[in-house]
Amino acid sequence: MGEIPLPAMTTPDSLISPPLPWLEALPDPTVLVDPADGGRVRSANVRAVLYFGRDLPALRAGTLEQLIPELAAQEPGAAPQALRLAGAGPWAWVDVRRFPVGDLLAVQLSDATAQHVAETSGRVLSDLTAALSRALSREEAAEVVLRQGRAALAAASASVFWFDPVAEELVPAGTCGDNPAGPGPHCSDAASTLVAEALQSGQPLFLGATEVRARLRQDSGVPLSAVAVPLMFGARALGVVHFGFVQDREFGGAERQFVQAVAGQLAQAVERVRLAAAERTAREQATCLLHVGERLLTQQDPVALLGALARLAVEGQADWCAVYTERGGALLPQVFAHRDPQQQQLAAEYLAAFPQWVDGPGPLALAYRENRVVRVPVITPEMVQALDLPGEQLALLQAMQVRSSLAVPLVVGGQRVGVLSLVRVGGAEPYQEPDEAFAQEFARRASLALSHARLTAEREAALAEAQLERARLTASQARYQALIEATAQYVWTNSPDGEMFGEQPGWAQLTGQTQPEYQGYGWADRLHPEDRGPAVDAWRDAVRTRTLYQIEQRVRVADGSYRSFLVRAVPLLAQDHSLREWVGLHSDITELKRAEQTLQAWGRELERQVEAQTRELRAANEELGAFVYTVSHDLRAPVRHVGSFAGLLRRKIGDHPGLLKYVDQIEGAATRMEVLTDALLGLARTGAAQLAKTPVDLSVLVDAVCADLAPDLHGRQVTWRVADLPAVQADAGLLRQVMANLLGNAVKYSRGRGHTVIEVRAQETPQEVVVAVQDNGVGFDPQYTGKLFGVFQRLHHHNEFEGTGVGLANVRRIVEKHGGRVWAEGRPGEGATFFFSLPRG
């Protein structure tokens, strides 16, 4: 703090009267007081005038107790001692010396702030260090500095701020006292404040009142001094500690060292707390991973295993954990666990209502697509609001208070199977970079657990299958033995070089040869002369290549006759892959060959009969078509005559309502008969027509038919919904009849609807193209579906809807002529859909 500077000008005589040279010669502020007059001030030197900020008359008007209340308690002649003054002058601590001057008492003040700080800083730092060593959190460490640091510096206020490197802002940790010079509760954007300046520069600030006013660009009317020291650990800024003073202060070297030592101790304590928290987290993570390993050995069901892992994660590493698997392009939650039971249902509703898509923008999709860890350190309310989500989704997400997240892909056997999601909410610590390593290891072990569970399930399934296969093999061997005994099959063995050796009871029973006769290649003597050479050559090739031997041959059996056999032989290998022996089987197929010959003869006869019947059927169809054509053609003239005679009869009758009614019925029947005749004639022509297949664009064809139907739609509201239709190979004219019939029916049977909707769509498969025509008309009863495509079959009376009952029959004939099929679906009052298919190519 130092001496009080004296003014350069000469002190006016009015300040001191009468002048006392010895008083002015004293280097410290000194006043003379009269103990007999209640301690009233009688005189003072210039330094005292400047210290107390009052002229001599003002000083003489008061008492020592009024000037310095703290001195009133001292006894006259007491030894000099340091006092802490509340506001008598610029010094926080003073040494007081009293000595008598005649009947008066001289009170001399000297600056003891620096000395006091120097004397007490060691003790305060020792106490503060001890207190900080006991702090278990950053908040407790900040509280120690706020209380003890402020008291040691006699500051009006103290504040601590933490620096959030993720959000890149200062967050208030705590404050005590009242200092209008403080930076306020939010200072992340106030670059002109002392705290932000100290953080940005990395250097401590010790500012008197003039400097504070200059930086804050304001004048509170009260002398304000401030200290702002960054909390540095190495090159990393952890925050800022700030002290405010309601008086103009100069900060000596001892005070500066003390404040910087306090800041250093706080930074070390915070780093120790961080390291302790990191160590605790590492222990928790190691314990979690250990438990994951235990689950590897105890849990075999994959879904139950994932559920157990999710619960382990929320015991210390997340507020909620979910495992997603990919299905149909979506990432769907397979298992889910939440630390808070009340939030469990809320989060479950969100996950079920709003699935994550693999090609979407979120962290889950990104982790799955790019096969890497995706960490979102801090999710602020502003970030959530900026997502522009639907109202319900936004409200649920805000209610869950998501703070930070990690998404890690799950890989089993080199293949991605899903994503592990870890989420922290509320005020939890955000996920940091070291957490990624834990998440990856957790996901790796989860993947191993899944793989283990899958392998265990596959092993059990394989064991069950093996047991089943063993049972089947046992049964098969029993059946095989029974079959051999019940049928004419003979087993034999040969040496690795293809020679028959040892006793061969099967071959001996079949051929009647003795062992010396069939030894070596003697067995070949019993083959038919025409089969012997090819059989021996094929056998030698099989022996040379160690491959399957299979051939048909005729063998002279024990009774001297020849029978046909299917011969199969396989090489049996030892464990060292050397050839051990050949095992062969002669299966008697004599009766089968005879049956085969008989079947071939029957097949030839059947083909002859089918060809004859086909010719007869084709001739009958041609005769039937000619008959239908002739009948329909010859009926047209009589029908026209009936109509003409009915017209003549109408003119003869004149105005006779009773008779005209019958004439109307005759004319109506004649008209319907003419329509039916024309329809029959068209049906006959369709059956007789030859297909001329060409590429037909269904979209162009449908547009043309819709244009033809347009005149019939006058006054109706009809919406056509025609999808993109492919091109097909078909007879263009006949296919146009199909579409005209189906679209015409859709228009006709939807009449009476306020708004008619007709839809045309197609579906392609490797084998065929399926076309559908759907309307919202009257529909039909499904039990009568089989009658729809028959000739003259109608499900509605002709008074309701006109028609001949031939159109759909014609549709079926044309489609089947193309090799396709027709069918329909519908319900009364709900419309109908008619389908037809055409082969591809």
TrEMBL record:
Query: Where along the sequence do coiled-coil regions lie?
Result: 592-623
Q: Which residues form the PAS domain?
A: 476-546
What the entry lists under Pfam families is as follows: GAF (PF01590), GAF_2 (PF13185), HATPase_c (PF02518), HisKA (PF00512), PAS_3 (PF08447)
Listed EC numbers: 2.7.13.3
Keywords from the named record? Coiled coil, Kinase, Membrane, Phosphoprotein, Transferase
> In what residue span(s) does the PAC domain sit?
549-601
InterPro entries membership = BphY/WalK/GraS-like, GAF, GAF-like_dom_sf, HATPase_C_sf, HATPase_dom, His_kinase_dom, HisK_dim/P_dom, HisK_dim/P_sf
Provide the Histidine kinase domain boundaries: 630-841
SMART domains assigned: GAF (SM00065), HATPase_c (SM00387), HisKA (SM00388), PAC (SM00086), PAS (SM00091)
User: What is the reaction catalyzed?
Assistant: ATP + protein L-histidine = ADP + protein N-phospho-L-histidine
The name under which this protein is listed is: histidine kinase
Per the UniProt entry, what species is this protein from, by scientific name?
Deinococcus aerophilus
